[in-house]
Amino acid sequence: MLNALLVFVPIGVWLGVVVWRELPRPFLTLLVIGLTYGVFVGLAHQLLWPWAFDSPPRLGGNLAGTLSSTAESTVLRLFAFGSSVLTGLGVGTLVGLVGWGALRLRGSRPRAAG
Fold first, then answer.
1. 64: Cα separation from own chain's centroid
2. DSSP strand E in 1-114: where?
3. How far apart are CA 85 and CA 38, in angstroms?
């Protein structure tokens, strides 16, 4: 339940503010918000990494045991961070399209920037 609130409430707030304020570039605004959100989520994951696992994650398959533990941890952390950023971009893209569409359906003319 708490996880769902942390996921969906910020997205609803972003979308609500963009539509309510009739921002001039809703898609771009929400895309940048999603990217920023993804970066912050990625940073939070990195900061909480030591407490997230009972034992550190390891590479498997053909890569199992081929890298030092430091290199392995670095690879995993980089991919985890990148995944957070890409997820933020994806969410920003989808919510941006919804915001753009909502303003078009309302027939609202975006307010001038400035």
1. 29
2. none
3. 4
- In Å, what is the CA distance from 67 to each residue of 5, 53, 72, 76, 89? 39, 20, 6, 11, 30
Per-residue pLDDT tens digits for 7-43: 899 999 999 999 999 999 999 999 999 999 999 999 9
Distance CA 87, CA 34 (A): 8
**35-90 pLDDT, tens per residue?**
999 999 999 999 999 999 888 889 988 888 898 989 999 999 999 999 999 999 99
pTM score: 0.83
CB of 24 within 8 A of CB of 112? yes
Q: Which helix (H) or strand (E) holds 100?
A: helix 69-106
Tokens of 13: 């707030």
